[in-house]
Design goal:
Layout (H helix, E strand, L loop, with lengths): L9 E14 L2 E14 L3 E5 L6 H7 L8 E10 L2 E2 L5 H10 L1 E4 L3 H4 L6 H12 L5 H14 L16 H13 L5 E5 L7 H18 L2 E5 L3 H7 L2 E6 L2 E7 H6 L4 H8 L50 E4 L2 E3 L20
Parallel strand pairs: 3-8, 3-9, 6-7, 7-8
Antiparallel strand pairs: 1-2, 1-4, 4-5, 9-10, 10-12, 11-12
This protein binds iron/sulfur cluster.
Length: about 350
């Protein structure tokens, strides 16, 4: 139990997961030795800068890493079964039925020459070949209306819909097979704030009424604060902090999380506070720094940090952090920080 929680509540256990891309410049370590759990019925927000590995990790959960990438280590245990052992046939069934993904750009994800109903019927019949077209169409109607789109729009092609409608169609495609886990990868990035707010309500509704588990991958911390139960902060391919929204926002432990939260713009116009700029740049992951990958930028770096990588460990109840400040090691020269629970 990595999070101190009953195993029955855990839908996905990710253990020692690593993903590498084989590039001309050498292997690029996009996700490195990541372990954490996703609980049933929760919305888990995954945040971090571009290139931190959050989307790669989402794709890895569906074993959708294309060449030149590969999952080169780890287990993904979904509802008690290690999906890394599934053959291609079982994986096809797993994708869609157990896990579905809402992609960020509906215009490139939807086929421009297919009508909306054809997209949905095809998704149903690929996984349920015995389902007749008429009953698939009935399901498509019910689903699309639940998402606030009139069923007559099923006859439309993607370009005839607004951006918000297209994104709702993508959500519909993610829901149509009743998958347990929905991965929303920057699903609202292309939308204006009003449509985005409506979609957020719908995602929350989906979780509450259909008891789905949602992995919300985004660079938008405000979105995560608004919608998620827990947050996983990623940096340079690793999860560096994981806890409830309240714990991580009220008491951020990792120096990167603290910097990230300080660099979020404050929209109060009466406050004239300068935005915090994180020093340095994210590392080149073909040659990541040894030890803690944040050490070249960390204001609290210690000698051990550049030599040995810490583990993601519990610092307070259900609040994990990947940082030597909170962990003991014989080579560590500075006292460990005591964290009040
Ligand atoms: Fe900073 Fe060291 Fe913690 Fe890394 S392990 S975040 S370098 S204090």
């Amino acid at each position: 139990m990595i999070n101190g929680t009953n195993n029955n509540n855990v839908l996905v256990q990710i253990r020692d997961l690593s993903v590498v891309y084989h590039t001309r410049l050498g292997p690029l370590s996009a996700v490195d030795d990541v372990s954490f759990d996703i609980f049933r019925g929760e919305i888990l927000g995954v945040v971090g800068e571009s290139g931190c590995g959050k989307s790669t990790m989402g794709k890895a959960l569906m074993r959708m890493i294309d060449r030149p990438g590969e999952i080169n280590n780890g287990q993904i245990i979904f509802d008690g079964e290690d999906i890394m052992t599934f053959d291609a046939h079982r994986m096809r069934d797993f994708r869609g039925r157990k896990v579905s993904m809402i992609f960020q750009d509906p215009m490139t994800s939807l086929n421009p020459v297919q009508r909306v109903d054809e997209h949905i019927i095809e998704a149903i019949q690929v996984h349920e070949p015995k389902t007749k077209k008429t009953s698939a169409l009935d399901r498509a109607r019910g689903l699309i209306e639940k998402l606030g789109i009139q069923s007559r729009r099923l006859r439309d092609h993607p370009h005839q819909l607004s951006g918000g409608m297209r994104q709702r169609v993508m959500i519909g495609l993610g829901l149509v097979l009743n998958a347990d886990l929905i991965i929303a990868d920057e699903a609202t990035t292309s939308l204006d704030v009003i449509v985005e707010a409506k979609l957020l309500d719908q995602l929350r509704d989906i979780r509450d009424t259909l008891n789905k588990t949602i992995l919300l991958i985004t660079h938008n911390i405000g979105l995560v604060a608004e919608l998620s139960d827990r947050i996983a902060v990623m940096y340079a391919g690793r999860v560096v902090e994981l806890g409830s929204i309240y714990d991580v926002f009220d008491t951020p432990l990792h120096p990167y999380t603290r910097g990230l939260l300080k660099s979020v713009p404050n929209i109060r116009l009466d406050e004239d506070e300068a935005l915090y700029k994180m020093p340095g740049e994210p590392p080149n992951l073909t040659h990541p720094p040894a030890g803690c990958r944040f050490h070249p930028r960390c204001p609290e770096v210690m000698p051990i940090c550049s030599k040995i990588a810490p583990r993601l460990e519990t610092a307070r109840p259900n609040h994990l952090v990947h940082c030597w400040l909170y962990q003991e090691h014989p080579e560590k020269e500075t006292p460990t920080v005591a964290v009040k629970s």
